[in-house]
Structure formats: structure tokens, C-alpha cells
Specification:
Chain lengths: ~240, ~220
């Protein structure tokens, strides 16, 4: 098997355009998804049976139906209802719905992992529920939300590749176009994969840096006996730089 | 054009029958993915530096790239190195490797939370490492990661819908074909969404049953 670099060098603009549209899709849906996740999380934490039921149904549908089906349902659904949306915006809507479900779960699990006494202490010092949320719950939740939030965001970036199926010109779509022109699947898909890998790696690096800045990583490392360590760790212990 | 529930109901039998193909593929992939996850975990536990470096890069690659691209790679690229797989097999390989990687990463986290006492006891009883893995560690590991394994199962089931793009005739592709033939693309999609939702509910219900049986044993 021989690699032909001209496949990539001849159409590098397509890959750049594709990567740019992938980032655009992901960024817009990230912001909208996060905004939508807040009410969804509020509903899913609600003690009201009907409101809670709505959230459970919403989450079951978004997380139980393949994303490719959601993309097509949004795209054809808006057309069927008489409001034909451009493919890009169908993609944004679908990815926003997807992100909102997973982000709301991140919010819900972080907030409910706080000790219940936090709400009570707010009451004791005479704060309203909203004030407790603003001054006690939210400041404590933001840090722990970062690692799972980053995972969801990376999932989102990867999932955006499926939007190529409704002919949005993002990275995967451009890869398929070049593949169709050149019949060189290896070069094309490896390149596309490497670009995605670069994007997600860069993003997780930034996230680790942000997490460290906020000081959320309070990892407690449990001591394990020498014999069991052979089995319970999968890599050699790295020398950790102790920071003051 | 408007939404017509009659077309959903009309598409449901064919789409439902085709969705069973997804269910079968998902069951096979679950077994392969679990085997891959356990295999990778055992290999990594040997802590051979060169092998672990390769495995780590592979894990990072699989976690950092879309499953759709991995499916394309298995379908279009493996034939070039002499492995000519039919679309179904290529898809099963791609999704199994993908989920296997996510499972081994989860195992790694769960391993570091296991109690070291039983392993020391087993070592004191002169059990071989293979016996310790099989009799002591894996049973605990599988029980503790059961919730994650069930949710990985739903991910696997959903990923089988992506195999429609490499021409596997499964539920989602059949829904698209019905949509193309009747010029009503929307209603068959609702039908296939209902099928996937139902399959996932069955899977989650089965998982809850297992978890309840486990609750007595764990802790």
C-alpha cells in the first residue's frame, strides 16, 4: 500500500473549511446546549411529579434515540411542519438538544452530590432559595462540573461528525467529498481522524489547564498495598511534582 | 404536508423487524466489547512499557476521534491491508473496538477503587496471578462497573444505527428507504426512533434487574 500525499495537499482548503465549520457547529451548540441544560436540570431536580416526568421523558428520548435519527428528525421534521431550516441550523438544533440532555445530567449530578446541609445552612443565615443557589450552591458546583462537562463537550465535537449525513459541509462531509473525488480512503480518513484528534486533544489540554486554575482538582490518592498495586494500577506510578 | 400518524403506524412493522438486526448486532458487539475491554485491561496491567505506550496512543486515538470516522476507517481502510470485511463485520469490529476502549478506561478507574485486602489474602494463599484476576478481581470489577456497562450497551445500540452509512440494512436504513419510496421521510424516522427507544428501555430494564440482584452482593 502506498500513500499519496497529493490527495491531501491538493485539497487542503476543504479540510480547513470543514474543520472550521465543525468548530462553528460545536461552539454554537455548546453555548445553546448549556443554556437549555439549565431549565432541563431544574426540571429533572424538581419534586413536582409532572415537571419531573417531562424531564425524564425528554432525557429518555434524547439519550435513547441514535443521534443520526435525531438529526434527520429535526431536519425533516421542520420541513414537514412547514418551516424548512438550512441544513446547518438543523444540525445546530440537533446538537443543541443532544448537548442539553448530557449537560443537564452533569449539572444535576454535581448539584445533588453537594451535602444536603448546604441548602439548610443557607436557610439558617436567612437566605432565600435563590440567594442560596447564587452564593452557596453555584460557587461550589462550578469547579466539579468542569471534568464531566469537558467529557460531554468532547462527545459533542465527535458527535457533530454525524451531521455530515444531512450535507452540512463540516469536516467529515469534506472528507467524504475528497474521498469521492480521489478514491483514496486511507489518506482522507486518517487525515480527518488526525484533525479531530488534534481538536479534542487541544480542547482537553485547555480544560485541564482551566481546571487547575480554578483549583478544582482535589484528587485524593488512596494508598494501595504493594502486592495489590500490581493488579490495581494499569501504569507505572509517575513521579508527581509536588506543588507548594 | 403535515404530520400523519397513519404513516408512522404503516412503517412500524418493517422498521421494527429491521431494528431487531440492530438488537442482534448490539448483543454481539457487547460481548466483543467486553472481551476487548477485559483484554486491554489485562495487557495494561502487565505494565510493559513499550506495549503500554502503544495501547495508550490507541486509547487516546479512539477516544479523540468520532465513531463514524472509525467505522469509515474499518470499512474502507482494512481492505487495503488485505482484510476485506463485509459492511456488517467492519461495523461490528469498529464499534467493538470503540466501546472496548471506553470499557477499559472505566475499568482502570474502578480498579483503583478496589480494596487491596482480598488480593493480598489471595496472594498469601499462593493463588497464581491468573487465578487472582479470574476469581478475585474480575467478579468485583464487573459488579462495580455494571451501571457503566449497561449505559455502554445503550451507546452500542445507538451506534449500530450509524452502520446505515456503510450500507448495512438495519432499522435506520430501512426507515430511510421507506421514506424515499413514499416521499414521506419524516414519519418512518419517528417509527425507528420509537423502536430504538423501546429497545433501549428493555436494555435499561434488564440492567436494573441485574443491579438489583447485585445490590445484595456488593458492599
Amino acid at each position: 500500500m502506498q500513500l499519496d500525499p497529493t490527495v491531501i495537499t491538493d485539497s487542503w482548503q476543504l479540510f480547513v473549511t470543514g474543520a472550521f465549520i465543525t468548530l462553528q457547529l460545536s461552539l454554537i451548540s455548546f453555548v445553546l446546549g448549556l443554556l437549555l441544560a439549565v431549565p432541563v436540570a431544574a426540571l429533572s431536580m424538581s419534586t413536582h411529579a409532572v415537571l419531573n416526568g417531562i424531564a425524564i421523558l425528554y432525557l429518555a428520548i434524547i439519550r435513547g434515540v441514535p443521534f443520526i435519527a435525531i438529526v434527520f428528525i429535526v431536519h425533516y421534521g421542520t420541513a414537514t411542519m412547514g418551516a424548512r431550516t438550512p441544513a446547518f441550523w438543523s444540525g445546530v438544533i440537533a446538537l443543541t438538544l443532544f448537548a442539553s440532555a448530557y449537560f443537564s445530567e452533569v449539572i444535576r449530578s454535581t448539584v445533588s452530590a453537594l451535602p444536603p446541609g448546604q441548602w439548610d445552612s443557607g436557610r439558617v443565615v436567612g437566605m432565600s432559595r435563590l440567594q442560596t443557589l447564587r452564593y452557596i450552591i453555584i460557587p461550589q458546583s462550578l469547579g466539579p462540573m468542569i471534568p464531566p462537562g469537558v467529557n460531554v463537550t468532547i462527545m459533542m465535537i465527535k458527535e457533530s461528525s454525524v451531521i455530515s449525513a444531512i450535507t452540512v459541509g463540516e469536516l467529515t462531509y469534506q472528507g467524504l467529498v475528497v474521498q469521492g473525488n480521489t478514491f483514496a480512503p486511507f489518506e482522507v480518513f486518517i487525515t480527518v481522524a488526525l484533525i479531530y484528534w488534534g481538536i479534542t486533544l487541544a480542547f482537553s489540554r485547555v480544560a485541564i489547564w482551566a481546571e487547575r486554575r480554578i483549583g478544582a482538582s482535589q484528587r485524593s490518592i488512596r494508598p494501595v498495598g504493594g502486592i495489590a498495586e500490581r493488579y490495581l494500577t494499569l501504569s507505572r506510578p509517575k513521579r508527581r511534582a509536588e506543588k507548594s | 404536508m403535515g404530520f400523519d400518524i397513519a404513516f408512522v403506524l404503516a412503517a412500524l412493522p418493517d422498521v421494527g423487524a429491521a431494528s431487531l438486526i440492530n438488537a442482534w448486532m448490539a448483543i454481539i458487539i457487547c460481548l466483543f466489547a467486553l472481551a476487548t475491554g477485559i483484554g486491554l485491561t489485562l495487557v495494561r496491567s502487565l505494565k510493559i512499557r513499550a506495549i503500554n505506550a502503544v495501547v495508550d496512543i490507541f486509547i487516546s486515538f479512539v477516544r479523540g476521534t468520532p465513531i463514524l470516522i472509525q467505522i469509515f476507517l474499518c470499512y474502507y481502510v482494512l481492505p487495503l491491508v488485505g482484510l476485506d470485511l463485509n459492511p456488517t463485520t467492519a461495523g461490528i469490529v469498529a464499534i467493538s473496538l470503540n466501546s472496548g476502549v471506553f470499557i477499559t478506561e472505566n475499568f482502570r478507574g474502578a480498579l483503583s477503587a478496589l480494596d487491596d485486602g482480598p488480593i493480598e489474602a489471595a496472594t498469601a494463599l499462593a493463588l497464581t496471578p491468573a487465578m487472582i484476576w479470574y476469581l478475585v478481581i474480575l467478579p468485583q470489577l464487573l459488579r462495580r462497573t455494571l451501571p457503566m456497562l449497561v449505559s455502554e450497551g445503550t451507546v452500542i445500540l445507538k451506534n449500530t444505527a450509524l452502520l446505515s452509512v456503510i450500507t448495512v440494512t438495519e432499522g435506520f436504513r430501512v426507515a430511510q428507504q421507506i421514506g424515499g419510496a413514499t416521499f414521506r421521510p419524516f414519519e418512518p424516522l419517528i417509527a425507528v426512533a420509537i423502536c430504538f427507544l423501546a429497545l433501549n428501555l428493555i436494555l435499561v430494564g434488564f440492567g436494573n434487574l441485574l443491579e438489583r440482584r447485585n445490590a445484595a452482593i456488593v458492599r
